[in-house]
Each structure stands twice: as C-alpha cells, then as structure tokens.
Amino acid sequence: MTEAALVSAPTDAPNVVLTDRAAKRVARILAKEPDGTVLRISVAGGGCSGFQYEYNLVRETPANDDVVLAKNGATVLIDAMSLEFMGGSEIDFSDDLIGQSFQIKNPNAVASCGCGTSFAV
C-alpha cells in the first residue's frame, strides 16, 4: 500500500492517505461520470456519534485550502474544515461478505457507531 500523491494542500495540512484499493474504486466510479467529476469527502454534524462522513461526486474547481488526493486515475477532495477532523486518516475500500463500502480509519475518533458511519472526537 502506498500513499496518495498530495497534489495540492496547505503547507501545514495533516496527511491523509488514500489506499490503492480506495483509489481503484474511486477511479471506477469516476470513469462512469462526466469529465471533471471528483469525489469530495467531508465531515458533517450528525449520525449517532456526533459526526459523519459525506461522500459526494462533484464537478467543481478545488478551493485553495482543499487537499487534493490524486492516485491512479482517482481524485478526492477534502475541505480544510473536514481535514481538522480527518488529519492522519486512511481512506480505504472494503469489499467483503457484509458488503462494499469506503472505510475511513481515523486516529482522531474516540468513538464510533456500530455501523461505522459516524464518529466522535
């Protein structure tokens, strides 16, 4: 597993890693979308633990303070506010008997719900 190329980010931005599995899955999804579409991952209030991850396909120019992860045909954007909660995280993709889903291994999370879609810091 190798780290994603950090195309652009503020110089003091915490590192976020996009695994090869996640990059492959994002690239497959984006291949079916119009040119210029990227995956934006953000953190929003909600869920049973206080915060939850949101995944949106967007066609927008990255903001100056966005972290842009680009790897193997996949592009993922993370906004500066979400990065405060996600710094040091690993974005992975799981495909097992339970189902398929993106998994964020977040060292800042002190608790999470049973289904893994929300977390507390």
Secondary-structure map with pairings?
Elements: E1 5-8, E2 17-18, H1 20-31, E3 38-45, E4 51-58, E5 67-71, E6 74-78, H2 80-86, E7 90-96, E8 99-105, E9 111-112, E10 118-120
Parallel strand pairs: 2-7, 3-6
Antiparallel strand pairs: 1-5, 3-4, 4-10, 5-6, 7-8, 9-10
Gist of the model:
The protein is an alpha+beta fold and 121 residues long. 16% of the residues lie in helices and 42% in strands.
Strand residues, percent: 35-45%
Which structural class matches the secondary elements?
alpha+beta
Largest sheet: 7 strands, mixed
What is the assigned CATH homologous superfamily? HesB-like domain
Q: What is the third-level CATH name, the topology?
A: Hypothetical Protein Aq_1857, Chain: A
Low-confidence stretches: 1-11
Please, how many helices?
A: 2
Number of individual domains: 1
The CATH architecture:
Sandwich
CATH class: Mainly Beta
Number of strands: 10
| SSE series | EEHEEEEHEEEE
What is the arithmetic mean of pLDDT? 83
Distance between the termini: 27 Å
Q: Strand order of the main beta sheet, please?
A: 1-5-6-3-4-10-9
Give the overall silhouette: globular
Q: What's the gyration radius in Å?
A: 14 Å
Helix content: 10-25%
Walkthrough of the structure:
By secondary structure, this protein is α+β, with helices and mostly antiparallel strands. It has helices spanning 20-31, 80-86; strands spanning 5-8, 17-18, 38-45, 51-58, 67-71, 74-78, 90-96, 99-105, 111-112, 118-120. The chain has one domain: HesB-like domain (Hypothetical Protein Aq_1857, Chain: A), CATH 2.60.300. The chain is built from two helices and ten strands. It has a seven-stranded mixed beta sheet. A three-stranded mixed beta sheet has the order 2-7-8. Strand 5 and strand 6 (74-78) form a beta hairpin. The radius of gyration is 14 Å and the shape is globular. Residues 1-11 have low confidence and may be disordered.
